[in-house]
Structures are given as structure tokens and as C-alpha cells.
UniProtKB/TrEMBL annotation:
GO MF entries: cyclin-dependent protein serine/threonine kinase regulator activity
Stored Pfam families: Cyclin_N
Protein name from the UniProt record: Cyclin-like domain-containing protein
Family according to the record: Belongs to the cyclin family.
Source species of the chain: Pristionchus mayeri
Length: 248
């Protein structure tokens, strides 16, 4: 299978990510990551309350969020309000729309320590920020989440390779969790979704001590010329996040 066609404007070199608008404006790397992770937590919590899943509208909102902050600084646009606007937009772009009022109510209910506004003020901020978001991403709603590729690999392992369904299901669960947690990192800015999915499925196999499976280089059927060193680099971004959380 060929690699997914992601507009090149949304894939960034490592040095560009490290020199984001927020960093250029004087924010430290740790502070930037902490504030972005707060925004992701808001989207995950409210998405859950709205009945959304990370493999649909909530995941799309996370993509919009990360992309926005490659164009604007956190100093200029606070993460919490941007997060809500990303959700408002993602609901529409992913055909699971929610009223702005519902998003605002959930924000005030679960994050009243962050959003110190009345509901009408917050709704105005969300809709105003959505206009900035739309202009920033140039109305490009191209989203290709990694989850569908994980399902593809699982089906391939079962139908073509004859692996035990229970074993494959465990790989899927672990890889799915890794993808969920990858939204707390910058992976979606640096790599195409299929590359992320392959790497994290490879990690799911590795942590269950089935190195003999990875030795077959099964991923080459899906993504040609992807070396294990590159996958290690991708996986370590997620593993480093776990280490950071464990030390927090």
C-alpha cells in the first residue's frame, strides 16, 4: 500500500517543530508541552462526555489543535479556548456536530477552574476563535488518523498470516492505546499517520516479546523502506511521554 497523501504543509521537520511560534516567543519546551497537554486533556474529557471517540471527531480536533500552534503562539491564543474551538470545528468536519452551547456547558462543568466566564461569553470566544482557526488552516480539513491502519494490520495478521485472534487483539489494544497517547506528543506533526500506526503496532508486538514477528519485516508490505531505527525514534516519543508522566 502506498503512503497516505497528507498535504506537505502539515508535515514539519524536527527543527521547525522545536522552533514553534511559542518557542520563538520565549516559551520553554516544557511549558509549551504542558500547556498543549492541558488542551488535549480538555478535548479528550469533553469528547468523551459528548460521546465522541479519539478515532473520529476528538482525534480530528487534536490534529487541528497541533497544526494551529505551528502557525500561532500560545502566548497569543490560549490553549483551552483553542481546544474548544477545535472541537466545535471537528464536530462539523467529521459529521458529528455538537452545539457550541453543549461544548461550553461541558467545559464549565468539568474545567470551571480554567474557564472563568459565563456561558454566553465562552460561546462567543469559541465561535470567534473558530474563525481564526478556519483561516489559519486555510479551510483544509484533511485528516487521516492512524487507527484505520491498525485495523488493517490486524486483519492482515489474522487472514493472511494466520495469527491467533486473541494475540492479535492484544496487539491492537496496545497499539490503540499508544496512538491515543501520541496526541500528547508532536508525532502527528512530524510523521504521516500510516508511519505512526506501523511504528506503534511494531511497538505493541515488541513489548509482548514477540520479536520473531518483527524480524519478518511485516510492515514492508504496507510502508516500503521504513527502517527499524526510524520506528524506534517514533516509539520513543510516546515512551518518553510515559516516563515524563511517571516522574510528574
Amino acid at each position: 500500500m502506498s503512503r497516505p497523501r497528507i498535504p506537505p504543509d502539515w508535515i514539519f521537520e524536527e527543527e521547525v517543530i522545536k522552533n514553534s511560534p511559542s518557542r520563538k516567543a520565549g516559551m520553554s519546551e516544557k511549558e509549551e508541552l504542558d500547556l498543549k497537554r492541558e488542551g488535549i486533556e480538555i478535548m479528550k474529557k469533553i469528547g468523551h462526555e459528548l460521546g465522541w471517540k479519539l478515532n473520529n471527531a476528538t482525534g480530528a480536533a487534536c490534529f487541528y489543535f497541533h497544526r494551529f500552534y505551528m502557525l500561532h503562539s500560545i502566548q497569543e491564543f490560549s490553549c483551552p479556548t483553542t481546544a474548544l474551538s477545535c472541537m466545535f470545528l471537528a464536530g462539523k468536519s467529521e459529521e458529528t456536530p455538537k452545539k457550541c452551547k453543549d461544548i461550553a456547558q461541558n467545559a464549565l462543568k468539568h474545567f470551571n477552574n480554567i474557564f472563568r466566564l459565563n456561558i454566553n461569553q465562552l460561546m462567543d470566544d469559541i465561535m470567534g476563535m473558530e474563525r481564526v482557526l478556519l483561516q489559519s488552516i486555510k479551510f483544509d480539513f484533511t485528516i487521516d488518523l492512524p487507527y484505520k491502519y491498525i485495523i488493517m494490520y490486524a486483519n492482515d495478521f489474522k487472514s493472511k498470516r494466520g495469527f491467533d485472534a486473541e494475540m492479535v487483539a492484544e496487539f491492537v489494544r496496545n497499539a490503540w492505546t499508544f496512538v491515543n497517547d501520541s496526541f500528547f506528543t508532536h508525532l502527528c506533526l512530524a510523521w504521516e499517520p500510516q508511519i505512526i500506526a506501523v511504528s506503534l503496532f511494531w511497538l505493541a508486538i515488541k513489548i509482548r516479546h514477540h520479536e520473531e514477528i518483527n524480524e519478518t519485516k511485516w510492515w514492508e508490505e504496507h510502508v516500503a523502506e521504513l527502517c527499524s531505527d526510524k520506528m524506534e525514534t517514533i516509539c520513543h516519543e510516546v515512551l518518553d511521554y510515559y516516563t515524563l508522566m511517571g516522574n510528574g
